Amino acid sequence: MENKLSIDSTKNKESFNYVNCFEKPLGLILGNHDEKIKNSFFLLLKLMQCYNIECFDDSSIFYTIEYNEALAYIFEDMLNIQMNIQKTHRANLNNVIKNNIDNGRYALVPGNLKVYPGSEYYEEYDWKHLILVNGYNDEEKIYYVCDNTHEEGNDGSQYIHGTIDYELLEKLFESAVDSFDISSVWSLDIEENAGSYSEKEMLMNVLDLYLYNRSEQPYMEIDLMNTVQDKIQAGERIKTNCEGEEILKSMEFILLRTIRYKEFFYQEMVTKLRTLDFDENIINKIENVSLKITEFWMKIANSVLINYHLMQKFDMDDQIIRVMAKEKEMFRLLDRVKGELDS
């Protein structure tokens, strides 16, 4: 028996700088259903990943690899999409995947790239990955997938169609269970009422979080800089040549990725405003200010990391004042956007 669901791999072409290999297949699925829903998903998620939002302070938000409170809010409350999470094991993995495909749902299967030939992590170290399965062929014992296996030099911008035999996918899944204690297959139920909020209502919800639900100190970059200062004070050197999970925990990765998430958040904001045919002059201002915000934070981050490598204290007060001026300008612009949407 064979069953295959179509999927356009060009519907989410962001690199791994902006979305990880857990978020990427979610973006592909949502983009194939409705580009506007995909945009809303990333707008909400990246906001929570680049600013401290009071009601979502779980650290797992930053690197989404489990179904956390933020994802539940985005999918269930904002997008009216039900996430199915099926605990399974190798013995019944094939049945779970096929059942999802037969019911018109893509199956999202966790795997460990350490056991994936062709991956840059193959036989080197553990790396979490989520495989989008869009079909199966019982006669050939293969799965149809839309995937990127982190081969050397591939930044994840383009996922490709391919196949994985049953035995290899079982091995990838079993390794994820053993190494990461992840044993669930995910799928999305996207009904007709998905994304039932209007584009305007969705943007208002995002702006409410940004304007009124930020923590007293909303800038993750400042929190991370303070952490670096503490580590220098304690003589804790930055991790270099990290392997597997340690890469994701390294200060360098987190600090730079936070700024990239902020860059992506504003890109999605501009996209949403253009969808609404908002005043182009304001959109252009938001776009220009966001570029300055990213530029200034990147310069600060690079200086901080150089000092971290040298284990010497630093003073970024002048640079922080400069970037804060731009952050406040952005706040005023988005406050103005909300005011115009309210009127």
Q: Can you tell me about this structure?
A:
The protein is 52% helix and 15% strand. It has 2 domains: 2-189, Cathepsin B, Chain A (Alpha-Beta Complex), CATH 3.90.70; 199-342, no CATH class. With 343 residues, it is α+β, with helices and mostly antiparallel strands. It is built from 11 helices and 9 strands. This is Butirosin biosynthesis protein H N-terminal domain-containing protein.
Give the gist of this structure.
The protein has 343 residues and is of the alpha+beta class. It has 2 domains: 188 residues, Alpha-Beta Complex (Cathepsin B, Chain A), CATH 3.90.70; 144 residues, no CATH class. The chain is built from 11 helices and 9 strands.
Largest sheet: 5 strands, antiparallel
CATH topology of the largest domain: Cathepsin B, Chain A
- CATH level-two architecture of the largest domain: Alpha-Beta Complex
Question: Mean pLDDT, as a whole number?
Answer: 89
Derived structural class: alpha+beta
Helix content class: 40-55%
What's the structural domain tally? 2
CATH class of the largest domain: Alpha Beta
Helix-strand blueprint:
Elements: E1 2-4, H1 23-33, H2 35-50, E2 51-53, H3 69-78, E3 82-87, H4 93-102, E4 107-112, E5 128-137, E6 142-147, E7 160-165, H5 166-180, E8 184-189, H6 199-212, E9 214-219, H7 220-234, H8 245-249, H9 251-275, H10 280-310, H11 317-342
Antiparallel strand pairs: 1-5, 2-9, 3-8, 4-5, 5-6, 6-7
